[in-house]
Amino acid sequence: MIPVSAISLDSKSPLKADHWQQQMANSLKTASELLNYLVIDEQSLPYVVDHNQPFNTRVTRHLADLIDAQDPYDPILLQLLPTQHENQQREGFSLDPLMEQSYNVLPGLVHKYKNRALLIVHQACAIHCRYCFRRHFNYQDNGLNGQQRADIIDYLQQHPEINEIIFSGGDPLSLSDKKLQQLIEQLSEVRHLKNLRIHTRTPVALPNRITDEFMQLLADCRFNTTLVTHINHPNELAVELTEKLSLLKNSGVTLLNQSVLLKNINDNAQTLCELSEKLFDAGVLPYYLHTPDDVEGTQHFYVEREAAIKIWQQMQAQLSGFLLPRLVKEIPQKQSKTWIIENP
Ligand SMILES: *Cc1c(COP(=O)(O)O)cnc(C)c1O
Ligand code: SF4
What we know:
- Helix 10 links the parallel strand 7 and strand 8 (285-290).
- The longest helix is centred in the C-terminal third of the chain and has 13 residues, at 269-281.
- The chain has helices at 20-25, 31-38, 61-64, 75-80, 146-157, 177-188, 202-205, 212-220, 239-250, 269-281, 305-316; strands spanning 104-106, 109-113, 116-122, 164-169, 195-200, 224-230, 254-260, 285-290, 326-329, 338-339.
- The protein is of the alpha/beta class.
- Helix 10 (269-281) crosses helix 11.
- A ten-stranded mixed beta sheet has the order 1-2-3-4-5-6-7-8-9-10.
- It has two domains: 16-87, no CATH class; 100-339, TIM Barrel (Alpha-Beta Barrel), CATH 3.20.20.70.
- Pyridoxal-5'-phosphate binds at residues 110, 112-113, 116, 118, 166, 336-337.
């Protein structure tokens, strides 16, 4: 993760306070800032805050405002506040469990599955999630300069089996609209690319990142566009966010959501059913429910396989089929995500 100050601003003139880039710059950047903002007395918490985590705190004020400061187990707070739990060790947990580094065919490009390639568009995120499986990923190797972009285009030209390009990160929506547009224009030249997919959690942190310009550039590009939001809990679906998602949907973008199953945050069928229903109200279909990866520092969020299956089966008994996300795990070397229940 790179400091927020490294995020490029398009305009030299000062940005308005309600501009997303300004709001990103104004985010809360330490655990103390977050606790002070919420007026939470650290000593009163039933767990120990860790002020020295190398993966630093970052929370937008929009998201902080969705936290119930009276509840030390608030599901948004627990995703963002670093605690001593991150120092636990667990056998089998490692820094790069997905062995992603080995599929890094070029700096910034991960080609693991046959027809789709993942582009690390931007290293920074609007928020830092404590469960993040990319927290140890070597982002410094994945900055995209002009030469690297040209090399990526070359690689894509030479791989006609790739028909979908996936924007990932970090978070691709950390990039300005102008730079996103340039990137999309460059990719448009690769004729066999049909589909553009953007994976992002930024709208959760900054709903107004969904700017008119962003919607326009998706509408204008030649790709079949999909936006996959990363929303884990119904509390993250603020009114401002659902409004923006509805606009996106009406402009013709396919909207999907993926969640991570997280202990003490959303590891019960009731919360996840409510999430599915709320997503659908906003025009979004649930896509994946990921079981957590075995990443060091995230052990306290881990949900065991049997518990995950039980939750999923309870969801299945309550939801319309199309509101049931696929329960998956990422297993290195596999040709796709692995469905945990293949034949329920
Ligand atoms: C998850 C992932 C994809 C996308 O997989 P889908 O099953 O199509 O959502 C692509 N590339 C990489 C490296 C991934 O981890
Ligand atoms: S937004 Fe995604 S990539 Fe960024 S810290 Fe959160 S989980 Fe990790």
